[in-house]
Structure formats: structure tokens, C-alpha cells
Amino acid sequence: MVAGAFPLAKLLTLGARQLSRPLAARIKAGARASPFFRTYICLPPAQLYHWVEMRTKMRLLGFRGAAVKPLNEEAAAELGAELLGEALVFGVGGLCLYLEYLRQAGQSRRREEHLEQTLSDLQQGLERLQKDLDELRAQ
Q1: CA-to-CA distance for 39 and 69, rounded, in angstroms?
Q2: Which of 6, 8, 92, 114 has a CA between 20 and 30 Å from the CA of residue 133?
Q3: 86-94: which pairs have CB atoms within 8 A and are 24 or more residues apart?
Q4: What is the per-residue burial (b if ≥16 Cβ within 10 Å, else e) of 106-127?
Q5: In angstroms, rounded to a whole number, what is the distance separating the alpha carbons of residues 125 and 96?
Q6: What does the pLDDT look like over 52-64, one tens digit per residue?
Q7: What is the pTM of this model?
Q8: What processes in GO biological process is this protein linked to (predicted)?
Q9: pLDDT 10s digits, 51-95
């Protein structure tokens, strides 16, 4: 088995995604426990999400201009912590995809450079052979 054939980057990506889930759960627990985190980090996105969701549902059902009541603090904190955890997992997944893209682009670029170098070497060899042939014909 060739050592270079092992997809180490994919294994590291999977590990990062698996580690992000417990970290997200820890953030959720911290959001429930910390009043500052709850008030300033979790509640605003949760209330915004709730408002957008309810407005969309009302418009789909044909209601126009109906006011949306905000969520209570406990439900908003829970929703905000859930949104934050999901955003973290999604962000880590997106980062892994971006890093994999960069890795693949680098491999492709190196492969192209290698092919261009090989082509250049072949052209130089052909020119040398052509020159040698011309010299032999001249003799």
C-alpha cells in the first residue's frame, strides 16, 4: 500500500466536523447558563429568525400586515442556542469544503505546471534533435 494514497486531508476534515458537534453542544449549554451570552448573543438572532419565519408563513397563508409577537425569553434562548450550534457546525463544514477546494486547486495547478514543464522539455529535446539532424545532413 502506498503511503501517499491515504486520504489524510479527508480524515482530518471528517475529524473537524465531528469535533464541531460537541463544541456546538457546549456552546448551547453555555448559552443557557450565561445571562450575558443569552441576552446579547442568542436572543437577537432567535427573535429575528422567528419574525422572518412567522412573516413568511403569514404571507403564504394570505395574511397581510399582521403583527408578530416575539418569543418568550426561554424559547428564544433555546432557539438562539440551537441556531448558534447549527451555524457553528455549518461553518466548520463550509470551511472544510473550502480547504478541500484549495487543496484540489493546488493539485490541479501543480499537475498543469508539471505537464507544461514536460512539454517544454520535449520541445527543447526536439529542437536539439532537429539541430543535430541538420548538422549531420550538412556533413
Answers
A1: 18
A2: 114
A3: 86/24, 88/20, 88/23, 88/24, 88/27, 89/17, 89/20, 89/21, 89/24, 92/16, 92/17, 92/20, 93/17, 93/20
A4: eeeeeeeeeeeeeeeeeeeeee
A5: 43
A6: 999 999 999 888 8
A7: 0.65
A8: regulation of lipid metabolic process
A9: 999 999 999 988 887 788 999 988 998 898 888 888 887 888 888
